[in-house]
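Before drawing any conclusions, I looked closely at one protein, both as residues and as discrete backbone shape codes, quoted below without any editing:
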Amino acid sequence: MIRWIIVIFLALILISWFTPLLQKLGLGRLPGDFRFKLFGREFFLPFTTTILLSLLAAGIAKFI
């Protein structure tokens, strides 16, 4: 159980670290990625980017 928590924590750190690079590649600005302001805070919901990266990861995992 603790191993999965560590893996998820490290994955979130890596995703947040690579976010600027992914935005330069165009991910995060796809149709279906929502960005809005509410009460002075900006929220970002990357639905399409998440699906695309999940398909890419599944494809890589299938070939490994």
The longest helix spans residues 2-24. Residues 2-63 form one domain. The chain has a mean pLDDT of 85. The first strand starts at residue 33 and ends at 38.
